[in-house]
Amino acid sequence: MVKCGIIGCGVIAPTHIEGYRKLDNAEVVYVCDLIPERVNAIGDKYGIEKRCTDYHQLLADPEVQLVSVCTDHASHAQIVRDVLNAGKHVVCEKSAARVTEDVAVMLDAAKAHPELVASGIFQHRFETHNRVLRDMLNSGKFGKLLAVNLNFCCRRTNEYYIKDAWRGTQAGEGGGVLINQAIHHLDQLRYLFGDIEAITAKTANLTHQGVIEVEDTAFFIIEFVSGLNAVVMATNSSVRNWNSRLMVEGEKASLFYENEKCTSVEAETPELAKEIENALADEREKATVAGKSYYGSGHTGQLFDIVNAVENKTAPYVSLEDACMSSVFVLAVYESAKSGRRVKIADLI
Ligand SMILES: NC(=O)c1ccc[n+]([C@@H]2O[C@H](COP(=O)([O-])OP(=O)(O)OC[C@H]3O[C@@H](n4cnc5c(N)ncnc54)[C@H](O)[C@@H]3O)[C@@H](O)[C@H]2O)c1
């Protein structure tokens, strides 16, 4: 049985707690938040006795083996480093990093503790359809890939930003729509199409002027190491609550994937189109733990993977380094938008 602690008892914490509770080999024994009312509300709801407002107390408890870091972006690096230095395994919510210095702090600590599991949440990698699509792309089912287009929109109001002091600030959140909402889909691009070479971008604040310091909208071109190119539009100024559309053009097949559901396939033969459609027919599983429906069902699968990595002393499916690279991808978009230049990922790390 792996004993777990949660640092940060806000919006995402119940998704972690309920995810762990679905596993036979994990138990949440300690919760922590700076705000006593939040830690007590969660502790009472889930019957967790050990509680604190200073996470160093949680880290001093020998019973805790694995810690979920569920705090705001700015605090991730320091907390992850302290968790590892306390000799405990760690999983950090997205976006692991908010500036490149955060990446160095976390990865130095992870390298200093190779005996510990260090992972970052990207739960959609644990949804079946994404794995099936990745396998088909890698096995050449679509032929040579020619072009990719991702459009993502959601709605984040001024009230959403005003509610929590860290949101919409450079220092607290590190960015806007890209580093918080669209990052799931940007990570999906890295997951499906591999490492990124360079970014050329433009960002804007279209509907949150005077409220946020960061972007609510972005347009950019991605050059993948493979030579494939993608065009991305992302905004949280939409009147739609949440929508993503991915188009994949391959020499043999063309796919439309909307809200993680395959909505259209055309291929060089009807048989190939049917085969791809059937393989992706298993649309996104409904969320099985607390959280919004678009969080998907992946948290439980990812926590299962991490708990098993702790028990079996194996590597997690998503390493902290890999998760940090999706943060670096976002930071490259910001750097390009700021400088007006094409930015190579290698220049940021
Ligand atoms: N994977 C997903 O689908 C998903 C969904 C929502 C949020 N998130 C991520 O989860 C993280 C938290 O987001 P949220 O929406 O729950 O934020 P939130 O503001 O609702 O909660 C964060 C909590 O952390 C606490 N906190 C901050 N610093 C702390 C410290 N040093 N010690 C103890 N507690 C501390 C705050 O008091 C707050 O209660 C962010 O990284 C966010 O991007 C991920």
Question: Looking across the biggest beta sheet, what order are the strands in?
Answer: 13-12-11-7-10-9-8-14
Averaged pLDDT: 96
Terminus-to-terminus distance: 37 Å
Q: List the ions, cofactors and other small molecules found in this model.
A: nicotinamide-adenine-dinucleotide
Q: What is the fold named in CATH at topology level of the largest domain?
A: Dihydrodipicolinate Reductase, domain 2
Poorly predicted residue ranges: none
Please explain how this structure is put together.
The protein has 349 residues and is of the alpha/beta class. It has two domains: 2-122 and 300-317, Rossmann fold, CATH 3.40.50; 125-286 and 326-347, Dihydrodipicolinate Reductase, domain 2, CATH 3.30.360.10. It is 37% helix and 26% strand. It is built from twelve helices and 14 strands. It has helices at residues 13-21, 36-46, 55-59, 73-85, 100-112, 128-138, 158-163, 177-180, 183-193, 270-279, 298-312, 320-339, and strands at residues 2-7, 26-32, 50-52, 66-69, 89-92, 118-120, 145-155, 196-204, 217-224, 229-235, 237-250, 253-258, 261-267, 343-344. The strands form two sheets. The chain has an eight-stranded mixed beta sheet. The chain has a six-stranded parallel beta sheet with strand order 3-2-1-4-5-6, sandwiched between helices. Helix 2 links the parallel strand 2 (26-32) and strand 3. The chain starts with a strand and ends in a 5-residue tail after the last strand. The relative contact order is 0.17. The model has no long low-confidence stretch (mean pLDDT 96). The structure holds nicotinamide-adenine-dinucleotide. Nicotinamide-adenine-dinucleotide binds next to helix 4. Residues 7-12, 32-35, 38, 55, 70-73, 75, 93-94, 121, 123, 164, 180, 295 line the site of nicotinamide-adenine-dinucleotide.
